[in-house]
Amino acid sequence: MLRSLFLTGAAASAVLAAPAMAGTKLTDYAVQTSGNYSSRGGNDIYGRVAVGGNVNANADRLGTHLSAANANSPALIVGGNFHYGNSTLSQGDAVYGGINTSPRYNQMATPNGRLYQGTPVDFTALNANALTLSQRFGAMATNGNFTSQWGAGTLTATHSGLNVFSLTGAQFNSLYQLNFVGQAGDVAIVNILGSVNDYLNFNLGNFDVGSVLFNFVDATSVASGGIDWKGSILAPKALVSLEGGTVRGSVVSAGFSAAGASVQGNAFTGVPAPVAPPISAVPEPATWATMIAGFGLVGFALRSRRRLPVVAA
Predict the structure, then answer these.
(1) Please, which contacts does 302-308 make with residues 24 or more away whose CB atoms are closer than 8 Å?
(2) Which of 26, 33, 254, 274 has its CA 20 to 30 A from that of 122?
(3) Between these two residues, 3 and 135, which has the higher pLDDT value?
(4) SS3 of 247, please?
């Protein structure tokens, strides 16, 4: 009985110390930038857009895959000044915090919403959260393998669930192909140190677009021409520049510049919850009751052992 009680206590301790790994969403926006949004035309942004700085763009299509449920709610949110022409927001409102400098007869079309001045988002908190997430991901221990040969790189998952990889900007720029190897349901956080300017192909294998994140920890520039990014980009210190190509996930950055690009906004959904130190866990009342009862049984057993009669030889 004593052994079973000790095993029960050990199991309870293991449960209390187990980390919480509930996945959450990186962002609610297809494009989220703390700085300016600059478009040279022809971009297709599927979802909502949040811009902490100014918008200066023409001939873009925004919110093209938003449902009618988004009508008359903020879908393009600009913290600074608003300058748009020959562009359409398919669903929802366009809101700006500064001034509207768009041509008088060339305003953004909002067929299912309004264009007005307001401040519906706390950009300070939004941007601080993006930076904190990037730093937290960058500090995670690498537990996946990266290998490369003749310009082809491979990221191999070694754990079921979350896998963290690390590359330098130079390693990333040296590749023409990046392959992912893992099981369905695996999650990949790819920490990239340094700025990049590259063209390459991605092969996700069994990974899903929503389970892949490219985290540019300290980059000030992420530039790509025609890349099909099969995941989300988190670069809270960088200007993300897209010359054509597609981002299947979301873009979170310090600035956004694009021409002829598509951002689909299938945001990364594998953000792990912060793990609290085991000592902070407080047992539930039922757990306390079980532990107290166990201690009582241990004391009773010890007292009974002391009371055993001494048999003379």
Answers:
(1) none
(2) 274
(3) 135
(4) strand
CB–CB of 248/209 below 8 Å?
yes
How far is 248 from 268, CA to CA, in rounded Å? 10
Residue 14 confidence class, pLDDT cut points 50, 70, 90: very low
User: Count of residues for the chain?
Assistant: 313
Residue with tokens 């919480």: 20
CA dist 144 to 63, 202, 251, 253, Å? 36, 17, 24, 25
Per-residue pLDDT of 94-126, as tens digits, reads: 999 999 988 877 778 999 999 999 988 999 999
Amino acid at 99: I
User: What is the CB neighbour count within 10 angstroms for residue 123?
Assistant: 20
Cα dihedral: 44, 39, 76, 251 (round 10): 70
272 CB-near residues (< 8 Å, 6+ apart): 21, 22, 23, 162
Where on the phi/psi map is residue 28: left (φ > 0), alpha (ψ -120 to 50), or beta? alpha
- Residues 232-253 pLDDT 10s: 999 999 999 999 999 999 999 9
User: Which single residue is written with the structure tokens 């190897």?
Assistant: 181
CA distances from 312 to 263, 304, 307 (A): 89, 19, 15
Q: Which DSSP symbol is given to 209?
A: G
Tokens of 247: 């981002």
Give me the residue spans of the domains in the chain.
142-247
Please report, as a single letter, which amino acid is at residue 155: L
Of 276, 267, 271, 194, the residue nearest 237 (C-alpha): 194
CB 81 within 8 A of CB 101: yes
pLDDT for the residue 85: 81
Output helix, strand, coil percentages for the chain, rounded to the nearest 5. 20, 35, 45
Question: Which residue carries 């929503």 as its tokens?
Answer: 210
